[in-house]
Design goal:
Blueprint lengths: L1 E13 L3 E13 L6 E16 L2 E15 L3 E16 L4 E13 L7 E14 L4 E14 L14 E15 L4 E14 L7 E12 L2
Antiparallel strand pairs: 1-2, 2-3, 3-4, 4-5, 5-6, 6-7, 7-8, 8-9, 9-10, 10-11
């Protein structure tokens, strides 16, 4: 079960160019049974800036103050960072990049939380008026501290997990509102913990998209 509250205040600092913001986020995350959970409050400030008509950047920086209940009851303070940059190279081609570091819930049964670093790169190109190609490459480093362990795993050690994903997509516009999409994705999970499973996964999909 997760309960979340978000709030922020945004103000224009330079007309049509720069906006500043401050915000707060609260999360209460509880797992079923006696596994435990956590409370986390994040305070941050940030800025959005239009460098020019082709480049837009944003950044948020702050700290997360967390209380984790599991094998032990621990307080933790971790940095919070979210940043992104979008650049339009030509009328048909654009690229983007993202960077993030945050306190996050664990996606396994051994820990109640993790410190997570995300790096992403993307590109999009309109091949013709009807055909669009796009790709994304993401890198996620999950850092599991022993103080984040579930209640029944008091002796587990720190470890890290790496997840890499590459996605390629093509879209064909049938008419104004209908599209056919085709995609391919390869992902790889690399872990230090012998109890967790490494894998490489390939996925192909095709779908229809409707724009309302």
């Amino acid at each position: 079960d997760e309960f979340t509250v978000d709030g922020s205040y945004r103000r224009e600092l330079r007309p049509n160019a720069t906006h500043g913001l401050v915000g707060a986020n609260y999360v209460n995350h509880e797992y079923a049974g006696s596994r435990g959970g956590y409370d986390s409050t994040t305070l941050y400030g940030g800025v959005d800036h239009n460098f020019n008509q082709n480049m837009l950047g944003n950044a948020q920086l702050g700290y997360s103050f967390s209380s984790i209940e599991g094998a032990t009851s621990e307080d933790s303070t971790t940095p919070y960072l979210q940043a992104g940059l979008d650049y339009k190279i030509t009328d048909r081609t654009s690229v983007n990049g993202t960077l993030g570091y945050s306190f996050y819930y664990a996606e396994n049964s051994y820990f109640n939380a993790q410190d997570r670093l995300n790096i992403g790169l993307g590109a999009k190109h309109d091949l013709t008026g009807k055909i669009t190609l796009s790709s994304t490459l993401s890198y996620t480093l999950s850092m599991f501290d022993s103080k984040y362990a579930s209640e029944n795993l008091a002796t587990i050690q720190d470890y890290e997990e790496i997840y890499i994903r590459l996605s390629l997509r093509g879209s064909y516009q049938i008419n104004r509102n209908n599209f056919v999409d085709v995609g391919y994705e390869i992902s790889h999970r690399d872990v230090e913990n012998e109890a967790a499973r490494e894998y490489t996964r390939n996925r192909v999909d095709i779908g229809w998209r409707l724009r309302l």
